[in-house]
Amino acid sequence: MNVTRGFTGRPRVHHPGLPPGQYDAGEDWPVLSAEVTPDLAAADWSFRIDGLVERPHTWDWDTAHALPASAYAGDIHCVTGWSKFGVRFGGVSLDAFLHVVRPHVSATHVIAASHTGYTTNLPLADLTGGQAWIVWEYDGKPLPSEHGGPARLLVPHLYFWKSAKWIAGLTLLDHDEAGFWERNGYHERGNPWEEQRYSGD
Amino acid sequence: MTDTVRTTDRRFAVPGRIAVSEQAAAVWQTATLTEIRRETPHAATFRLAVPDWAGHLPGQHLMLRLTAPDGYVAQRHYSIASAPDDSGHIELTLDQVPDGEVSGWFHTVARPGDTVEVRGPLSGFFAWPGDRPALLLGAGSGIVPLMSMVRHHRGRGLTVPLRMLVSARSPEELIYGSELGAETTPVFTRSAPPGVPVGRLTAAHVAPLLAERPSGGWEAYVCGSNGFAEHASRLLVAAGQPVDRIRIERFG
Question: Closest residue of A to B248, CA-based?
Answer without folding.
Answer: A34
